[in-house]
Q: What sequence folds into this?
């Protein structure tokens, strides 16, 4: 296994985040998430991405503690759920997440969805700014925010989000949102980077590149994310796959290969549209 560490991305407040981390969406609380996080940390991962709604924060916290690694070496992200956008609710929700994670601070705290029809995300952002001022979080950001949502947030924000975590894969490349964030110093983080086993992994172009480099289709796509300057959080519960998803730093795609993957963009979204997602 290649032990090379991924690059660190410096966020707009100077905090550094590993460019490759483990996502634990749909990973069951208890033994499953503890095994996945333990395998990731053993493989060299130093960033774990969870959320209140995943209901596995406690397992993440247990695995981090059990690793024996210093807390400051592990970057933990969690997220505020949609039912808690009111200011006081958001502060209470953070306390609950911190308690489950069993740690003294969170490295990155995100608003999970904008719910633009409610227009409460600006209130939630004020709560995140309070947590940031109190140094209970090292960085704050958003998830699933489109430029129009960010326009509203930034109009009254004291702190510019450090990260916008969005669905992003070769079939949904989100160029407009990426350009918007780049202009404002907001790092973009890809979730569902492999399209959850969708057509990206089976695309002939990706298959050909995998053969050329002696890599898996997933490694080719994850390498595309890395070379595109994106932070990426592939999800797996299998130790071998977790190791594979981290083994991205002994090859590089050529410029024409990067351009060819860029040409795969079809605007196909597999998750909810942030303009209309209203689940709680």
A:
């Amino acid at each position: 296994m290649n032990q090379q560490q991924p690059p660190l991305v410096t966020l707009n407040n100077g905090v550094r985040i590993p460019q490759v981390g483990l996502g634990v969406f749909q990973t069951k609380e208890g033994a499953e998430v503890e095994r996945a996080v333990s395998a990731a940390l053993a493989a060299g991962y130093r960033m774990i991405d969870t959320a209140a709604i995943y209901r596995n924060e406690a397992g993440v916290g247990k695995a981090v503690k059990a690793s024996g690694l210093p807390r400051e070496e592990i970057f933990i992200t969690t997220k505020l759920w949609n039912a808690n956008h009111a200011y006081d609710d958001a502060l209470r929700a953070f306390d609950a997440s911190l308690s489950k994670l069993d740690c003294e601070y969170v490295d990155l705290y995100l608003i999970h969805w904008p719910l633009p029809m409610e227009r409460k995300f600006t209130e939630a952002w004020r709560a995140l700014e309070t947590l940031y001022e109190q140094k209970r979080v090292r960085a704050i950001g958003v998830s699933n925010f489109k430029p129009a949502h960010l326009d509203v947030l930034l109009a009254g924000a004291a702190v510019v989000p450090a990260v916008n975590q969005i669905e992003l894969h070769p079939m949904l490349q989100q160029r407009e949102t990426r350009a918007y964030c780049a202009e404002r110093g907001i790092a973009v983080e890809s979730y569902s980077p492999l399209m959850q086993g969708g057509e990206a992994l089976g695309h002939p172009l990706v298959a050909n590149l995998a053969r050329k480099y002696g890599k898996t289709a997933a490694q080719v796509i994850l390498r595309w994310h890395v070379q595109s300057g994106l932070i990426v959080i592939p999800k797996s519960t299998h130790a071998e796959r977790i190791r594979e998803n981290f083994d991205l730093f002994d090859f590089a795609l050529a410029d024409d290969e990067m351009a060819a993957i860029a040409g795969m963009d079809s605007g196909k979204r597999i998750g909810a549209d942030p303009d209309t997602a209203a689940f709680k």
